[in-house]
Specification:
It is built from 9 helices and 14 strands. With 262 residues, the protein is α/β, with parallel strands linked by helices.
Length: 262
């Protein structure tokens, strides 16, 4: 699920290792990268362009084609990192897992940890790779829709964990998206994703177990489906047995649909 920067440094030039930069596409921030990096365009080619909501999962065919364009193969060992330590990388990890690829890992601490340890970097560049043979096998259980979330309000079958800040959850802080109200889905529980991290890395398994001491299935939510995956990955590191899924539209879809209804 996660790999250390020490591990990646030892395997940096292994034939089957593919390194993906999952940071959001802000060119001002993309000056340095880990050698051999390929850019994973989370908001572009790996997002559903037909959806009105941001960062939504693309369909199987689109994902497969774009992964092949990155030179990813069925036997690739994928290491995903971002520039904030742990942020968008967890989302990309989850996307590949939902498409049936098991050999995918988040670089714990990301680019900041890599640089801190003094490992080799290079200027941002686009590495050309031969087209891969990646095959997508999408498992729809990895995600749920707003209907499932609404049904759960009544049934209380699952716990809905919200990864946004407590201020956004409570409605006392604004949402980053214009004209989107803050607040929370009825019955949801606040667990800011920052709680499972320490200095840009995941807390230890023993520390993470503390956050997931319940037996119910879990629906993970956030603003737009990114930081929800940080909580889900934390629960996997804690080796919790509960069934897990991500509300892909998350608060953005909920707030927009509820606003339209009034």
């Amino acid at each position: 699920m996660i790999k250390s920067v020490e591990w990646l440094n030892e395997h940096l030039y292994d034939e089957w290792v593919v390194i993906l930069d999952a940071r959001l596409p802000d060119k001002k921030e993309r000056k340095t990268q880990i050698p051999g990096t390929r850019f994973f365009d989370l908001k572009g080619s790996f997002s559903d362009a037909d959806s009105q909501y941001p960062n939504m999962m693309p369909n199987k065919d689109q994902f497969e084609a774009e992964a092949r364009n990155l030179g990813i193969n069925e036997n690739s060992i994928i290491i995903v990192y971002d520039n904030l330590g742990i942020y968008t990388s967890a989302r990309v990890w989850y996307m590949f897992r939902s498409m049936g690829h098991q050999e995918v890992y988040v670089l714990d601490g990301g680019l900041p940890e890599w640089i801190y340890k003094g490992y080799q970097t290079e200027a941002v560049q686009n590495h050309k790779n031969a087209k891969g043979n990646f095959i997508a096998d999408f498992n729809a259980d990895y995600f749920c829709n707003i209907d499932t979330v609404e049904e759960n309000i009544e049934s209380e079958e699952a716990i809905l964990l919200d990864a946004r800040s407590s201020g956004r959850f409570e409605g006392s802080a604004p949402e980053p998206r214009a004209d989107l109200q803050s607040g929370n889905i009825p019955g949801s529980v606040s667990l800011p994703y920052t709680e499972v991290l320490e200095n840009g890395k995941f807390k230890s398994r023993n520390q993470l177990e503390h956050f997931f001491q319940h037996n119910k299935p879990v629906i993970f939510s956030c603003g737009s489906g990114i930081t929800a995956c940080i909580l889900l990955l934390a629960s996997e590191i804690a080796q919790t047995p509960q069934k897990k899924t991500v509300f892909d539209g998350s608060w953005t879809e909920w707030a927009m649909k509820k606003r339209l209804m009034h």
